[in-house]
Specification:
- By secondary structure, the protein is an alpha+beta fold.
- The chain has a domain of 102 residues.
- It is 33% helix and 16% strand.
- The strands form 2 sheets. Strands 1-2-3 form a 3-stranded antiparallel sheet, with helices on one face. It has a 3-stranded antiparallel sheet with strand order 4-5-6, with no helix packed on it.
- β4 and β5 form a beta hairpin.
- The longest helix is centred in the first third of the chain and has 35 residues.
Amino acid sequence: MKKSFLLIPGLLMITALLLIISGCQKKQEEAGTMTLTKTPSLTFGKELQFLRQHTEVLVLSDSTGKAKLIAAPAWQGRVMTSSADGDKGLSFGWINHELIKSGEVQEHINVFGGEDRLWLGPEGGQFSIFFKNGDPFNLDHWYVPAMMDTEALRLSRRIRVELFSVKRPALQTTRALPLMSSSQEKLKSSRKRISPPS
């Protein structure tokens, strides 16, 4: 009787241990499935096709056609995306497809996406350009000025480097979008860095 009494707690412990192990295995399988799920990456060419349906774009390219970027003059000349491998290469930028497709203009800020854009700061506080004079410093009163959000930039001249400019009575900005060729990149990375003496 004593042997069978000792056997019951042992069997209960083994059963509990097996249930715990099987539960952990199920979690690992679920986690494994989640890590295997991959969203398809968009190519530069597909993103270019999408953007051309919704706004005027400017495509800059190096002489090989591999290094490319897309700029959108209507969105302050922002760089929407780029690629190191031409139209079939990976698109490096994040593009807000939903907002662009909707055609809606948001009240506070239009997050079209992109890799690079004109931005001024500070965003908050007494010296911010994002609040009207006298308004409280909270998100209900925070607005991105139209010149940085919804007003288009005019292509001022086309040379080897594309230039955009916005003119305002108190502010003039010029935006240059240089594109480095692969030979310039190799030259830049091969230069030795010299540190100033301490």
